[in-house]
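P.,

For your records, the input lines for the assembly:
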Amino acid sequence: MPAGSVLVAGGTGYIGSFTTLALLEAGYKVVVADNLYNSSPEALKRVELICGKKAEFVQLDVTEENGFDKVFEAHPDIDSVIHFAALKAVGESGEKPLDYYLVNVYGTINLLRSMVKHNVTNIVFSSSATVYGDATRFPNMIPIPEDCPLGPTNPYGNTKFAVETAITDVINAQRNNATKAGNEAEAKKWNGALLRYFNPAGAHPSGIMGEDPQGVPYNLLPLLAQVATGKREKLMVFGDDYASHDGTAIRDYIHILDLADGHLKALNYLRANNPGVRAWNLGTGKGSTVYEMIRAFSAAVGKDQPYEVAPRRAGDVLNLTANPTRANTELGWKAERTLEQACEDLWLWTKNNPQGYRQQPPAELLAALKK
Amino acid sequence: MPAGSVLVAGGTGYIGSFTTLALLEAGYKVVVADNLYNSSPEALKRVELICGKKAEFVQLDVTEENGFDKVFEAHPDIDSVIHFAALKAVGESGEKPLDYYLVNVYGTINLLRSMVKHNVTNIVFSSSATVYGDATRFPNMIPIPEDCPLGPTNPYGNTKFAVETAITDVINAQRNNATKAGNEAEAKKWNGALLRYFNPAGAHPSGIMGEDPQGVPYNLLPLLAQVATGKREKLMVFGDDYASHDGTAIRDYIHILDLADGHLKALNYLRANNPGVRAWNLGTGKGSTVYEMIRAFSAAVGKDQPYEVAPRRAGDVLNLTANPTRANTELGWKAERTLEQACEDLWLWTKNNPQGYRQQPPAELLAALKK
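Structure tokens returned:
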């Protein structure tokens, strides 16, 4: 078993729960903290069904003063945090930016304060490709490398950017202060991974674990899934006048299992190599248009999914496709799964769990799991 | 008297107290909130001695939850905030970045939350030229215009940048939400000024009001003042190998009375023109090197001030000189006072108040004031 336990903040959410699964499968001891605002503790039961191991759960809001102190006091073996706890809807961030600054930015300041106080020295942060903004404003920056100048175009992206600088400044200060005090061993312990990911997609191939957004989903594939099950009449395509081959916006869709594996590899890299703060793109390197995604998901379902074109949304950009070379070479990580597999896994999850985590999965899927 | 009272957060500090004076002189009713961390309530007594009007004082920390709510409840006539409450030492921000994120960023989130709750709709924010970072990386960007790409180079600057985006996002959301609800009158009420200022300098020409930093001062002129009074053996010049004509770094020093007047003009502009969020540089447009400043201050004192060259400081840049054209034309504001006057006023204040606000000013200065 790896030394040191891991706190997964926001660990019952979509990416958080799959990362918890990856950590447990790799032998880590995991404590999950989540306020359950947009997620269900049932996700952790599915994790346990799949891997036979259990994460401890603490209900906690990131903005609760001293909340993380209590967790670190109760679990002195935690030396690393993977931090997903945030609001994540670009559109909503334009209407309620204060909530985003409070939860995403202050929440992280609050977490960092507790980490420094309790000597929890590694953080893997759930950043976003949104920090790049419209990379098409630079020549040769598509697919986007990590050294592309940052320039978010919406409040959600602004909060992710602010958190990146906060983590960078705090980790650098911890290292510099320790170095000045002549303690190089202490300096090396402080590390941060800024994982800028592109569009997470898909579900667990068992069909018992997937994305379960409360209320209206924010992203293309969950919306398409609702169309396929009849919950939603049609998909709204925001903009068909972008400068892509079919006019719709280009994104880099990455299978959730690959994304979770990227978090595990980043954490292992921090522990093994002590790089300080470093950003890595987690993407496939291959962009797909909205129309291509509709076709791919329709193929998985076996039925064409209806859509309607609407105007572009404020803050959306033409193309967010990763150059994942740095993660490929440094982390030894690569997106292995195809878009088709993501669509198939999503459809298996969706058709078998129309109420998401609010109902038990079909007995035949559970039986198949035990084999 | 102008309609609406003004809350000056951080109003006992250097720029805050001079802005309070300018507001009172212009007929505004002013409430000052300050935690007195690096300032003295005596500053407000000097304001009263100078202008014969009094600001109300509330001791309050920006990070206190619901603290601003209480102020706005007690003063329902407040419709505008001028926000200075922040930590401001670049060097310290590299060692204690968490304090800077907490006070500067979270403090402002906390303030904005109360403003939205209590319908306080105008904010003038004490930003900094530091948000530009090293503008010499762009051609034709010295002197720096407001549309120069931002890129702070130290944690202090990162917090100012994050606050600029928070204010922009919140004001824009208030306007957009009101517009969507069909309430254009409400939308127009929400306005923000991002005042990026360069290097404040000088004191009140009466000699009874000036900068009174607790502990070690951060900036060139207060340090020079300590050398002149013998509190400090010599000035440390950080870097003489910059690409300037004498090798020392170039800054744009602006007289504190001009700077305070800029805040007043920005507030009036927000109220009269409802521009939404807008950034203005407050500077003279003329850069001076460290060596030029030492000569100017030595001339005011009538004695050469000793100095020693030390290595550059991390995060410092070659040249921060404002292009103040936008403020000149839009706000009808211009820096009127000379560098020589700033040095003379600073020396008058320094030699007459060796203990700053911890002692009463000489009787002859008070007598001169009454004439």
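Two observations worth noting. Chain B has a mean pLDDT of 95. The CA atoms of residues 258 and 335 of chain B lie 5 Å apart.

Regards
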